[in-house]
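Throughout our pipeline, every protein is held as a single compact record rather than as scattered files. Nothing more is needed to write down the fold, since each code stands for a local backbone conformation. The record that follows is passed on verbatim for readers who wish to inspect the format.
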Amino acid sequence: MGIYDSDKSSDLLFPEAASIGNTEENDPPIMYPTDKEEVYRVVNSVESKNNESASKLTNSLLKFCREELVKPITHIINLSFKTGTVPDVEKIARIVPIYKEIKSDSALMNNYRPIAILPVLLQVLEKVVKPRLLKHLESTNFFFKNQFGYRTNKNMSVLPFKLLAIFKVH
């Protein structure tokens, strides 16, 4: 039974709360440890931009020194899983204004949108966490059946066809 199949009225108001912390004793941990091979693959997948963070580690430097850094990064990620924390220096994002090219006046502040440049270690951690979290959310039926965003094998291009099918029935 999924979390949205509850008879409790409180679960209907706050359905996400029904699944938080609910794991069976025999269930595998959500954030199982990573290994050097997974971290190495993730580091290789990070874009090679020179986005310097508060920790002074750039994406290019990480990729250049990946052979030497993969072991300590693996340790940091596993420690983060174990303690449920992230190093403070990795929580600091750099906010950069990006000009909206469809607007005409670049002198107006409203014609810019902010983007956050995340520290490269946080990007690596995020890429290690994402498949574990999605696997857990899928296995616990957290998502609505027709939710397409953030889901594996759920392409947004299928959505219009699903909507057409619904409208034809009604």
